[in-house]
Amino acid sequence: MTASFLGLFLVGCLDAPDYTDSLKPVESIRVLVQQNGETYSTLLKVHPSDPATLYAEVSPEKYQEDLVFEWYHSCNGKDSLLDRGSSYSFYPSNDSLPNKLIAFDGEGNSQTQEFTIVVNSIPILSDTTIPANGDTLYGTTASAFLFSWYSIDWDLNNNDTLFHTLDIDGKEFDVGTLLEVKQSGMSAGVHKFRVIVRDLYGDADTIAYKKFYVIDTLEAK
Amino acid sequence: MKLLRTSLLITLAGLLQSCFDSDEHIFDEADSIDITVDATISRTMAITIPSVKADTFNTSDTVYFLTSINPNKIINVQDYYWLMDGVQCSSDYNFKKQITEPGYHKFMFVLKDHFGDMHYDSLEVWVADSPTLNDSTFTPANGTQAIDPSESIFFTWSAHTEGIRLAHRYRFTLSEQNYTNTETQFVTIDTILTEPHYIYHNKLYPFKKYNWTVQAINEYGFSSEERIESSFFTKGKMPGEGSLQATISTSQDLATPVQLSLQNSDNPQKKYSYSYSFSRVDNKISTGAVPAGTYQLTISSSYPDFGEYKKDVVINEGYVTVVDGIRLVDSIKPSVVSYSGLDTLNFADSLKFIIKDGGGAISAANVSVHLENDLVTDKFFKDSILTVILRKNEKSWAYRILTVTVNDGSQNTLNKSFYISPSELWFKTNSDTTITSDQSIVLFINENNPFKFEIDTLKFFNLTTNTPIVSIPNTGKRTFSAELEAQLFDAFQTIRSSVIYTNGIVQHKDWNLYIKNANAKEEE
User: Based on the domain organization, do B339 and B324 belong to the same domain?
Assistant: First the structure.
C-alpha cells in the first residue's frame, strides 16, 4: 500500500508525454468537393446542373478509417441527417444542401464542422459583339473604335459580379464590369479580338476570336 | 530483509525529497516581484520614433521587434522567445526582420519566469508590397484622336498587389490642356475610385486635348510606383474641320508676342492668322477649328532676336495635328553703348548709356552696374536709357572701370566695361579758352603730385590736328609755361595737356582753344 502511494507520486514527477503514440489526436478534418470528375477541391463551389460529391479528408490519413462521419443539413438550429460515410453525393439543385459534418471516434468523442456549399452558375458571354466577325472599321491608328459585348450570369442577383477582359490582338485589357470601351492603336489591316468573362468565383466564359479589318482613311486619300 | 526494506525506504525518501525541495517552493510575499512584458514594433531602433502594437509594413521594410521587461531584463528567467503566427522566429529580446510573406501576421513574445509562470504580449502586423499598376494597357490608349466630345468615355486600367488579395482604390484625374490666351471651361476631375474604371458622361469640348492620370493605392495604404499619364483629343463639331496644336520651346521667361499663320498650300489666298502671347511655362497654343487641308505653318515673334519657324503641315478632318519641337530661341545678347559712343569716358556726375535688345523689353531689375567690384546703386533705367550717378569721392587719379551687366528675358547676359579717365589731376593747366587772332596764349603746367613722383615729360598735343605742340622730355621741373601766338592755331582745336611720370603713370587733361577773328570783333 505504501509502495503504491509512493509510486503514484513518482509517476507525477516523471516528465511523461501527454499521449502515447497510439492516442495522438486527429490533426484536421477537411471537407472537399468534386464535380464532373475533376479533382477534389477545398473551394466548396459547385455548378447547379451536375451531381457533386463531398468528401471528409482526415489528417493524418491513418485515422481516416477510425472515424465515423455524419452529413447534415442544418437550418434554424435543426439538424437533418442526410447520410453517413466519409463521402456524400448530392444534387446542387436540392434545397437541403449539406452544411454540417460531425466526425465521431470510437471513444465517444466528436468534432463538428460547419461549411457552406456555393452553387455558382457559369457566366455566359453572348456571341453578339461590336465589331461583329468580319466587320470593317474606317479610321486611323489614332481612332478610337467601339468594342461592345454582353454577358449574363444567373447569380447576378446573389451578389455575383462579372469582370471582363478585352483581348485585342493578344493584348489583354482588364475592363472590369464594363460592357463596352473604345480603344485606338490599330493600324490598317486585319485584327482579332475576343472577350473573357469571369465571375467572383472564378468561373469563366469566352468567345472565339473575331476578325475585323481596319482601313486607314487617311492613307486611302 | 529488514535492512533491505530500510534501505528502500531511505532511497524513496531521498527521491521524494528531490521532487519536493520545500525550501525553493516556500512562497514569501515580501520577496515577490510583479513581472510584466511589453512588446512593441518600430520602423527603426531610434528611441525617438514611437513604438506601436500594430502597424502596416511594406515587404521591403525592416521591422524592429522590441521588448521591455519590468522590472528589468536581468531577472532570473527560464526562457523567452518570439512566435510568428505560432512558430518560433527569434530567441532574442529585440530583433529585426524583413517580412516578405504578404498578409496578416501575429507576433507574440513569450517569457517563462523563474517559477515557470508564463508572460505574453502580442503584436499585429499587416504586410504587403506596393501595388503594381499596369501602365501600358489601358483604355483609351495614349494619343487617341477624334473622341466625340458628346459621348461617354470609358477609362479602364488594372492593378494588383503581388501575393495577396487586397482591395485597391485609385486616384483618377481628368483635366483639359491649358493653352496660352485661352481659358478652359472644363472643371478638372480629381477623385478616388474603388473600381478600376471610370465613365465620363458629361460634355467635353471640341478639338481639345485632355490629360488623365491614375495611381493605385492598396488597402494597406501603399501607392503604386507606376502612374498612368495619358491623353486624348476630341473631334470638332462641324464636318470638314480639323485643328492644330503646337508646343513652342522658348528661352523667354516673360510673355512674348507670337504670330502664327496657316497658308493653304493649294490655295495661297486662304490664310489663317493667329496672335498669341507665350512664355517658357505657358507655351502651348491651339488654333481651334480650321478647315482640313495642307498648309504652310509659319510662327514668328514680334521680337527680331527670335527668328522664324516654317513647316508644312497636314490638318485632317476631325483630328488635331500636333506640332512639337518648335523652338523660338533668342540667343542674341543685349547691347550697351555710351551716349558719346566711346568706351572711354570722362568722369561726370551722371553717365548715360543706351541699352537695346531685340528679344523684348529689358527690365530695370535685369540691369546692374559695378564700379570695379562695388555695386552702384544710384542708377535709373527707363525707356532704354541707363543713367549712372557717380559721387565726387569716386574720382581717382587712375582709370576706373565701370561695368554694365544686362540680362534679357532669355537669360542672355552682356557684361560691358567702360573706362573712366583719371579725374583727379595732380597738375593745373589751361581750361577752355577763347582768344582773338591777334592775341597770344600762355600754355602752362604746374605739377604738384602728393607722392613726389618724378616727372619724365610735360607735353601739349593738338588732338584735333593730331600734331604735337610742345614736348619737354627728361625734365626734372614741375612747372612749365610758354606763350604762343594765336596765329599758330586754327579756329578750334582740342588740346591735351599731359604729364608723364618716370614710373609710367600718365595724367592728362583735354581742353578747347577757340580763336576768334580779331577783325570780326572790331566789326561787332
Answer: no
Q: What pLDDT was estimated at residue B318?
A: 93
ipTM of the predicted structure?
A: 0.75
- The whole-angstrom separation of Cα A127 and Cα B248 is 49
CA angle B308, B314, B319 (to 5 degrees): 120
Where is the domain boundary, B260, B295, B328?
B328
Q: Is the pTM above the cut of 0.90?
A: no
Q: What is the pLDDT of residues A145-158, one digit of tens each?
A: 999 999 999 888 77
- Judge: A173–B139 Cβ closer than 8 Å, yes or no: yes
Asked if the Cβ–Cβ distance from A182 to B147 is below 8 Å, we say yes
Q: Measure in Å the smallest separation between the Cα of A13 and chain B Cα atoms.
A: 7
Last residue of a domain, one of B367, B387, B420: B420
Residue positions counted in chain A? 221
* Residues making up chain B, counted from first to last: 524
Domains within chain A, CATH numbers bracketed:
22-119 (2.60.40.10), 124-220 (2.60.40.10)
Are A176 and B196 an interchain contact pair (Cβ–Cβ within 8 Å)?
yes
Residues B195, B286 within the same domain: no
A159 CA: distance to closest CA in chain B (Å): 16
Reported as a single tens digit per residue, the pLDDT across B92-110 is 999 999 999 999 999 999 9
CA-wise closest residue to B495 among B513, B479, B483: B513
Per-residue pLDDT reduced to its tens digit, B4-14: 455 555 555 55
| Domain carrying residue B433 | 427-520
| Pick from A44, A32, A50: nearest CA to A201 | A44
| Residues in chain A within 8 Å Cβ distance of B138 | 173
Nearest-Cα residue of chain B relative to residue A185? B141
**Chain A residues touching B195 at Cβ < 8 A:** 176-177
pLDDT tens across B272-282, in order? 999 988 888 88
pLDDT, one tens digit per residue, over B462-516 is: 999 999 999 998 777 888 999 999 999 999 999 999 999 999 888 888 899 999 9
**HSE-CB for B469 with a 13 A CA cutoff:** 28
CB B107 within 8 A of CB B84: yes
